[in-house]
Amino acid sequence: MNHEKAILAGGCFWGVEELFRHQPGVISTVVGYTGGDVSNATYRNHGTHAEGIAVTFDPAQLSYRKLLEYFFQIHDPTTRNRQGNDIGTSYRSAIFYNNESQREIAEVLIAEMEASGKWPGKIVTEIVPETDFWDAEKEHQDYLQKNPNGYTCHFERPNWSLS
Fold first, then answer.
1. Mind listing the pLDDT tens digit for each residue in 29-67?
2. What DSSP line would sit under 64-117, residue for residue?
3. In whole angstroms, what is the distance from residue 98 CA to residue 117 CA?
4. Which residues lie closer than 8 Å to 108 by C-beta, 6 or more apart?
5. Is 27 buried (19+), middle (13-18) or exposed (0-12) by CB count in 10 A?
6. Counting Cβ atoms within 10 Å, is residue 16 exposed (0-12), middle (13-18) or buried (19+)?
7. What are phi and psi of 161, to 5 degrees?
């Protein structure tokens, strides 16, 4: 089976992970810290890292573009350094591409989203090269599976779609 990886940041990693895990073609998810300045980042010490998610997926079932389209439905890519009640650079919207194809797909999709006028403002999602990804602590992995009534500010927005 062929697998690909996407690294995304869309606010608190608990809610992003919980929604992605149910998508056909998603094989696994790991939450962690990426895009910042601290080695061996932790929840208590992650410097300028974003809370991110590494998604392993089967591109025969779920294309990278479709994965990104879903990403843009489950978080607000128009708020800089914020998702819901979570404020700060840890909660920024970012795509960490691992090859030029991923970068190009992200740029084209964002241009199409901007042109559509369906999102409530300008898309502020960063498109940057993949950097080190530090897995979050065990208690943060699968958090909403372990704590079904735990905090999340993520939900599907059906109208935020190009289709």
1. 999 999 999 999 999 999 999 999 999 999 999 999 999
2. HHHHHHHHHHHS-TTSTTEETTEESGGG-EEEEESSHHHHHHHHHHHHHHHHHT
3. 28
4. none
5. middle
6. buried
7. -145, 145
Which of the following is catalytic: 9, 12, 30, 31? Answer: 12
Task: Provide mean pLDDT across the span 14-21.
Answer: 96
Question: What is d(CA 90, CA 136) in angstroms, rounded to the nearest whole number?
Answer: 13
Question: CA–CA separation, 4 vs 55, rounded Å?
Answer: 8
Three-state DSSP state, 144: helix
The overall pTM is greater than 0.85: yes
153 counts as catalytic: no
- Distance of alpha carbon 139 from alpha carbon 60, whole angstroms: 32
Pairing between strand 93-97 and 126-129?
parallel
